[in-house]
Amino acid sequence: DSELPPRSGTLQTFEVASPRPTAPELPFQRETQSKGLLSDYRGRVVLVNLWATWCAPCVREMPSLNRLQAAFDPDDVLVMPISLDRGGAFQVRKFYEKHSLNHLDIFLDPRANGMRMLAARGVPATVLIDRQGREVGRLEGPAEWDAPEVMKLIDHVRREPHNGS
Fold this sequence. Notes:
By secondary structure, the chain is α+β, with helices and mostly antiparallel strands. 27% of the residues lie in helices and 22% in strands. It has helices spanning 56-71, 88-98, 113-117, 148-159, and strands at residues 15-16, 27-30, 35-37, 45-51, 77-83, 107-108, 125-129, 135-140.
């Protein structure tokens, strides 16, 4: 693994995973109710963000996640906000419309499996996954996800050589 850029600004509390462990087989539901697994996106860089509409810090960071996704092709870098809300897709869709979140897809985890599987202590919790499906690192708490230092980190991980596995 190549050396990551220095962590500054919003990334000061980003915990680098070294060596990079394989991310868990995180299950989720899409807005269409179809089920998926995190490994469905292997080959892409994925930023998993566990959040909920009732979590004030989560609500504050969602626009920056939307802007981050707008900056990258989702077939290359996918921002994956996984809602822990029990109200399902309808509740999240209403929230997205109210806050003009037009670049993010809806992912649902109403049983909060992701909290346990990622050993997250609270929300928001965000984990950066490389193209091989390994955890690059994580940040617990809110961040400005479109800040220059985040863009630099994601671009670095995006450019890492990968063996297509």
